[in-house]
Amino acid sequence: MIEFMPYIISQIAQPFHLILLFAATVIGLVFGAIPGLSGTLAVMLFMPLTYSMQAGPAVIFLIALWVGGCSGSFIGSVLLGIPGSASSVATCWDGYPMAQSGKAGKALAIGMVASFVGTFFSAFFAALLSQKIADVAFAMGPWEYFSLCFVAITMVLAISKGNMFKGLASAAIGLLFSSVGFSPIDAEARFVFDNMYLMSGLGMTVVLIGIFGVARIVEEYGKGFGALPEVDTKSIKGLGITIAEIAAQGINIIRSFLIGLGIGFLPGMGAGLSNLVAYSSAKNASKTPEQFGHGCPDGIWASEVSNNAAIGGSMIPMAALGIPGDSTTALLIGALTIHGLEMGLWYLKTAAMWCI
């Protein structure tokens, strides 16, 4: 990686590239914060703009959109209780209660710092250990993927302590929804009922808006328009959190980071799964698990560190193996191939450092 540092620094240091990086990050944040939009949609819509660019600016622009979209999704989770994307579902459970209690500023500050930590270090490790981790990902087979999915469902039950039946029922309904559409193995139509609009399956965005958005609107309408909570402005200094508070989350951050990085490098998984697993792990390891779901900062740290750590993780199979880690990396592979960039170790190091 050291031999590429002068080239990488020379690319980033150019004023036009810095402006492009900042603009793409802001656009990604806006797309991620609005429920129904996402960083993936931002990459899809703005991809044609990169066709006339050189390879360097194109990589900077697309990856900045991706990172901004994944990072900005926690804003809707905190302020509206509606996740901007599947990567911030677990953030809703503690971020929105904190906002309702007048600590929205602190919840947003935790999300910003956690997103930075997860993205920065995952990109760094992706650049250093890409080939070794890619070898592990390539060795994964059907049994390993089945075990991971089984663990994810088990984590849902662990989160639902006290009412495990509802947790199991929710997981079963989710599996049923995911079965709608054509089977990936034999291309057989399942649960489409001769409706052409169901043949492509149920989109994650549609499901999230239906579960979180509509439910939140109905709930708030039923409660009526009450007085807004008093915002705790006295405790907000700087970003709203102190170095001591960040240090106290050290174990939670490291654990969530490893979960996000580990799940992220498995093709087809990604941030949508890692934030749920990290949240469940944080709750199980906490000395006060009863506080989760009622505005506990630990839950925001776990969710946001893990989902951004999955960014660097998903770059590993994309670049080292040519296999998309998630839907966004599938778009990136196509866009970067147009610019003549092959998915190899050199590109991974360069893209990871640009992502940093």
Write the layout of secondary structure elements.
Layout: H1 5-12, H2 15-33, H3 39-46, H4 55-79, H5 89-100, H6 104-139, H7 142-159, H8 164-178, E1 181-182, E2 189-190, H9 204-223, H10 243-248, H11 250-264, H12 271-285, H13 297-321, H14 327-338, H15 345-355
Antiparallel strand pairs: 1-2
What report would you give on this structure?
This protein is mainly α. The protein has 15 helices and two strands. It has helices at residues 5-12, 15-33, 39-46, 55-79, 89-100, 104-139, 142-159, 164-178, 204-223, 243-248, 250-264, 271-285, 297-321, 327-338, 345-355, and strands spanning 181-182, 189-190. The protein has a two-stranded antiparallel ribbon with strand order 1-2. A hairpin with a 6-residue loop joins strand 1 and strand 2. The protein is globular, with a radius of gyration of 20 Å. It starts with a helix and ends with a helix. Mean pLDDT is 77; it is low at 1-5 and 345-356.
Quick structural summary:
This protein is an all-alpha fold and 356 residues long. The protein is built from 15 helices and two strands. The chain has helices at residues 5-12, 15-33, 39-46, 55-79, 89-100, 104-139, 142-159, 164-178, 204-223, 243-248, 250-264, 271-285, 297-321, 327-338, 345-355; strands at 181-182, 189-190.
